[in-house]
Amino acid sequence: MKKIDVANINYDDLFEACVTSMQQPRQAYLRAAKPQLDLNNNQYETHAGLGSLYQVSQHTDITSDVGKDDMVYLYDGKLLDKGRDYYNLLLGAAPYDTCPFCSQRKVKSLDHYLPKTLYPSFSITPLNLIPCCSDCNKDKGTKDANTASEQFLHPYFDDLNGLIWLKAELTQRIPISFVFSVVDISSLDSILYNRILHQFEVLNLGALYASHAAEEFENIRRMLVKLQSCPDDGALAKYLQMQLDTYKSTDLNSWATAMYEALLNSEWFLEMDLDY
Fold this sequence. Notes:
Blueprint: H1 11-19, H2 26-50, H3 68-79, H4 84-91, E1 109-112, E2 129-132, H5 134-140, E3 166-170, E4 178-182, H6 190-202, H7 205-228, H8 235-250, H9 255-264, H10 267-271
Antiparallel strand pairs: 1-2, 3-4
Helix pairs in contact: 1-3, 8-9
């Protein structure tokens, strides 16, 4: 759940690239609908900035001549073809090609934050097109928020501002595994807490992070055994602290940050024999 910068794309240029090769009279109808699309895009940006996109009304028609099918085709049939350069720019907006929804898997597609079948006005609106991994795109699907708390965090607008929202706990059994959950920040901001929790559950991030953490732990376990046998009794804790500081410096809410913090804070783990 990371904030990213939207690609520097002018909507007028993108729109032109998509409609210029369309047959008449469809092309003319779309050009005539452009002023209404501009108004709708302005409304989108305003609501997104306020965290109130759930208040945007579903619709099927933009004008009497342009409807859902036209706008869906503008994306499926044109942006993915004539506008491919713009599509690739949007994909490249995610740093290190990492999905901003799960902060883990690689970007493979664009998600319509407001589904294009429910909100066709925004089918090619850059602010509505989020680079993401295939799994997050599929799991998010065409789910639509009816309340503020059901909204996914918007990667172009919502910044968690250094807020720690992810935690992990050891299961205290062998083989060691981890349970990830959302920190209860409801006393600070109940809507934000519910949004994070909703996204965490819909995308099944707990299972994703637990899988990676279990693999990471097994990859380092033999080294941890050696650290336990060092003359320096604090060698293991020092290593865990070093790893925690490293991951925390780049991402407060990575699964690795939460995992190493859980290990470092577990007396059960620090006292157990890791050579099992």
